[in-house]
Amino acid sequence: MNKLFNTGVLALATLASISSAHEGHNENKPSSSYSLVADYSGPTFFDGFVTFTGPDPTHGKVNYTDKAFAASTGLLGFNYHQEDNSTRARIGVDSTDKAPGNAGRNSVRLTSKATFNAGTLLVADITHMPVGPGLWPALWLLGTGAEWPAAGEIDILETVHDTPYNAMTLHTAPGCSVANSSASAPFAGHLQNPDCNAGSAMTGCSIHAPATFQSDGKNLASAGEAFNAQAGAVYATEWTPHGIKVWAFARSAVPASLNSPNPDPNSFPPPLASFSGPGCDYAESFRDMALIVNTDFCGDWAGRVWEKMGKDKGTGVKSCEEFVGERPGEFKDAFWEFYSIRVFGLGGKDVGKNPDVGREGFGVL
């Protein structure tokens, strides 16, 4: 259980009654104004998600479980925090049983029933993220209805092992390159590569955030153990036809408009990441995107850099897969915790329906 907080875990209520998240639209809003289109929060946080249960596309040592199993075993649930009388969604992993041989460690990959397009502002109030050797957690958007990466991918918060900084990355089909610089469009991070199809999209174009940066006159961690020690942060992502920006705010420094019905990113300070320039059509390269929250183990990234990041020496275990399989107790604090995730659309436009829901590997709850 989270050692940072005095928490109590509440089971998911009645799975059979799970419907959709609070999704709606307001036709009367002007096209230049954001309004709420999806709200994942409180005791209904999980209502708008299904669970992906197919083989891991990134070859991790993971077994993604369905919603009923995850709820019954405590992988999905709620933490109650007495200090602020809040109920927060918890998404964890198995920290009890070994996963020998080819068996994957039980985890959860949530995928939204709704999809979103350019003209979207996503605001995630995150209080805890998985951190530690073997882990590969991510909060991201994935294009649906097409073979990856034809409809794009936007990684909002992603790390491996105990990396202390956030890597914000775009993955696309050929023909999308970032042409901006921090001089022309100020942002705090550092662009690693401009080609969003680099490595046949496996590498993509990534902006690494600083491990810490100034927010409300104080140092704020972008990811990792320090992120959890400060009780997280509020991440905001704006995606328009002209580009994609990602911010992180201390709760004491959240822009006033984010607490209004119609947030205005023009009032925000410079972001952590800004992907823009004429080398990409951001409305076409990214489309019909579903929101995903998951925790993977090892796989194509975390497994590949196990030795490079010194995890073999640090843990005394030669491979990522062996560590994950044989050390369940290492993952007691490997969980996501959210106050909320809210999604706003320009002009109050409606959200789409995820075409992947119901096919093999996706739940229907």
Write up this protein.
The protein has one domain (7-353): Jelly Rolls (Sandwich). The chain is globular, with a radius of gyration of 19 Å. The chain has five helices and 23 strands. A hairpin with an 8-residue loop joins strand 12 and strand 13 (167-171). It is mainly beta and 365 residues long.
Helical percentage: under 10%
Cα separation of the termini: 27 Å
Total separate domains? 1
Unreliable residue stretches: 1-11, 13-31
Class, according to the CATH hierarchy?
Mainly Beta
CATH-level-2 architecture: Sandwich
Give the class from helix and strand content and strand pairing: mainly beta
> Could you report the average pLDDT, rounded to the nearest whole number?
91
Signal peptide: 1-21
Keywords: Signal
GO molecular function, one term: hydrolase activity, hydrolyzing O-glycosyl compounds
Pfam families: GH16_XgeA (PF26113)
In summary, what is this structure?
This protein has 365 residues and is mostly beta strands. It has one domain: Sandwich (Jelly Rolls). The protein has helices spanning 67-72, 224-229, 299-303, 311-315, 320-326; strands spanning 7-10, 22-23, 34-41, 49-51, 62-64, 76-81, 86-91, 105-107, 109-116, 120-128, 135-143, 153-158, 167-171, 190-191, 205-208, 212-215, 218-221, 233-240, 243-249, 273-276, 289-297, 336-346, 352-353.
